[in-house]
Design goal:
Radius of gyration: 26 Å
Structural class: mainly alpha
Mean pLDDT: 92
Number of helices: 32
CATH class of the largest domain: Alpha Beta
Distance between the termini: 54 Å
CATH architecture of the largest domain: 3-Layer(aba) Sandwich
Strand content: under 5%
Number of domains: 3
Length: 646
């Protein structure tokens, strides 16, 4: 803590808020403590009754530090003191989303919900505050460090606590949360399984384990953990929702949808639950039911950005003038959490594009992308270096002799998102011998597993034994089998970013078929830019970033072509649009199956589709789809120059 802050806090403890504000407004010693300076300035302004100035200070703070949870809590105090209770409640809810340890927020949430006679929510908030208060002070401090982004400090503190108290479940839960943050999911699972064994009736610990198993795509285990939880808590809506999500993960929608229905009967005011059920209806092509669920989520939580974007992402919903005005008002208010702001900005971009108001559309797409990128802090040069490492570690000679598992089942469709991979999967999955399983995370997961188990990846690919490579191939096929619902001899994994791991794929699955789905750069890059992805694709929120990623993709694919060119089929989206039958015949010949006319009527194929292009590939091909970027041509001059389009 800086000298200025120490002096100001001492004055605040003496109720000398005006003097403390003057100290905080001096120019010296503020470089390393700017967010804290602004935060304490706002506190002083509130105590002096200057609420608007305090709120302006907090808004400025959040522009630079969008996840500074205490700023939302202080906003809540400002609105509370002005008796703007609904706005205060939203601010407090934002605060605890970012840092669930902020007990002043929980206490105020409980009080404000009681005033609205929402007693169940008030009780839950009070219980959360009581649970936080029951934790030991060192654990509370570790949690605060964690939510403030000080991961190393939090981990050091919590490991020290667990050395003295190895079975202290609250500390175990935080260590697991740290592991999830660092994407060491296997460690998180191990910790939480131990915690569940210690407190088998604790619902929240069980839900955390289910969440980790889901992130690991270990749906079968997650289902078993959820079923065991329902034996102990047979009418618990949150375990029911968790079980529904796991069944959806393995595409067992006949079990998933009724469970969502049961849970939402018990949780009629739970906006997130309606959003989750809406996603499943969208996957199944039940667009009207999906829209109804998204609208209900929006009604229950009017600032729920994901609900607005989910409506836009159906690609068919047309926002009303009233809904557009409501979204604009929320954006202009400055009261939204950043996550809601960028969701709503993308939704407004789609709304104005549908109205052919392209200047306004680009303005909101630009706002949404800039806000999202600010949170991600993406560094394109790190990704470029990772792709260069693949080329260096995987020279053509590495593939002169191949072992691995020899099954021919997998067909990998790779490329950039929005390049047409969903369309290719839908076409191929219309064949009687090919099953579509959508985007599987297991190749990327294997790359992490190899790094943790064997050493540096991808360099270690050169040292793995034939048995190890075969085992890795069998591991992938076993994981993928969870998602297969037919006995067709071939299946498709269309995770686009698998192009970054084709060396691994070729080493462990030498007979796999690889299709490179490629789209003209302006269409591909801009389509990605105006698409808000559920997760990943961090390169897509800046035009320069996405252009660099496209260039890196081309360079890496050129390398893979040099390594094993005949085993990669390049399919250009523009060729599919202009000559569907010719493109289909090329792909089927490459895979080694006979032509079937059903592949030309791909839009009639009834299957679950989980990607943003779901509704588009349920329609015949639209030849005009490649021209969309031209509506925004004047904003894309730099992109055009980069790809020599001008």
């Amino acid at each position: 803590m800086s000298t200025i802050i120490q002096k100001a806090v001492a004055l605040m403890q003496q109720q000398q808020f005006e003097l403390a504000y003057k100290v905080l407004s001096s120019d010296a010693d503020i470089t390393d403590s700017e967010p804290q300076i602004q935060f304490y300035q706002a506190v002083c302004l509130r105590y002096c009754g200057h609420y608007n100035k305090a709120l302006d200070t907090l808004s400025s703070l959040l522009d630079s530090y969008p996840e500074y949870a205490k700023a939302y809590q202080e906003m809540g105090h400002c609105y509370r003191d002005q008796h703007e209770n609904n706005t205060a409640l939203r601010a407090y809810e934002h605060a605890v989303q970012l840092n669930p340890m902020l007990n002043a927020s929980w206490t105020n949430i409980s009080r404000l919900l009681k005033q609205q006679n929402l007693l169940a929510g008030a009780q839950q908030a009070q219980e959360k505050a009581m649970y936080n208060a029951s934790l030991s002070v060192p654990v509370q401090q570790a949690y605060h460090w964690f939510y403030d982004g000080k991961i190393k400090q939090a981990e050091h503190q919590i490991r020290k606590i667990l050395q003295a108290q190895p079975h202290y479940v609250p500390a175990m839960r935080l260590l697991a949360e740290i592991a999830v943050k660092l994407y060491v999911l296997q460690d998180a699972e191990t910790i939480l399984r131990s915690a569940v064994n210690l407190v088998p009736h604790d619902r929240d610990v069980r839900l955390e384990l289910i969440h980790v198993l889901q992130k690991r795509q270990n749906y079968n285990d997650a289902i078993n953990v959820a079923l065991e939880g329902l034996k102990q808590h047979p009418k618990d809506p949150f375990i029911t929702l968790a079980l529904a999500s796991q069944y959806a993960g393995v595409s067992d929608f006949k079990l998933a949808i009724p469970l969502f229905d049961i849970a939402l009967t018990m949780l009629p005011d739970y906006a997130l639950g309606f959003l989750q059920r809406g996603h499943q209806h969208k996957t199944l092509g039940n667009i009207e039911q999906a829209i109804n669920d998204y609208l209900e989520a929006m009604r229950l939580k009017p600032d729920f950005g994901d609900a607005y974007w989910s409506l836009a992402n159906t690609k068919t919903y047309q926002f009303t003038d009233l809904e557009v005005a409501q979204m604009q008002t929320m954006i202009a208010s400055g009261q939204l959490m950043k996550v809601d702001q960028y969701h709503i900005a993308f939704a407004l971009g789609k709304a104005y594009e549908d109205r052919q108001s392209f200047d306004s559309a680009f303005e909101y797409y630009q706002l949404g992308n800039a806000t999202k990128r600010q949170i991600l802090k993406y560094d394109p040069n790190i990704v470029t270096a990772e792709m260069d490492a693949q080329k260096a570690a995987c020279p053509p000679a590495l593939f002169d002799t191949l072992s691995g598992t020899t099954e021919p089942d997998p067909i990998f469709i790779v490329g950039l998102p929005r390049a047409g991979s969903t369309l290719l999967e839908q076409i191929l999955a219309s064949h009687s011998m090919i099953e579509g399983t959508s985007e599987l995370p297991y190749i990327i997961g294997l790359s992490r597993y190899i790094k943790q188990t064997y050493g540096d990846y991808p360099e270690v690919l050169n040292t793995l034994s034939d048995d190890e490579l075969t085992s890795l191939g069998e591991r992938y096929l076993s994981q993928a089998r969870t998602h297969r619902v037919t006995d067709k001899p071939y299946f498709i994994d269309k995770m686009p970013n698998n192009f970054r791991h084709l060396g691994l794929i070729k080493k462990i699955l030498p007979n796999a078929k690889i299709i490179d789905a490629r789209r003209e750069p302006l269409s591909c890059c801009f389509s990605g830019y105006k698409q808000l992805f559920a997760e990943g694709q961090e390169f897509s929120y800046d035009l320069d970033d996405i252009a660099q990623y496209y260039e890196d993709y081309l360079a890496l694919m050129t390398h893979w072509q040099t390594c094993f060119g005949k085993n990669i089929l390049l399919v250009r989206h523009e060729d599919v649009v202009s000559d569907l039958e010719g493109s289909v015949r090329r792909m089927l010949d490459f895979i080694g199956v006979d032509f079937e006319p059903n592949c030309l009527q791909f839009y009639q194929t009834d299957r679950a589709i989980k990607t943003p292009s779901a509704e588009q590939v349920r329609q015949p091909i639209n030849p005009k789809s490649n021209e969309t970027w031209k509506r925004f041509e004047k904003y894309l001059v730099t992109l055009q120059k980069r790809f020599h389009i001008l």
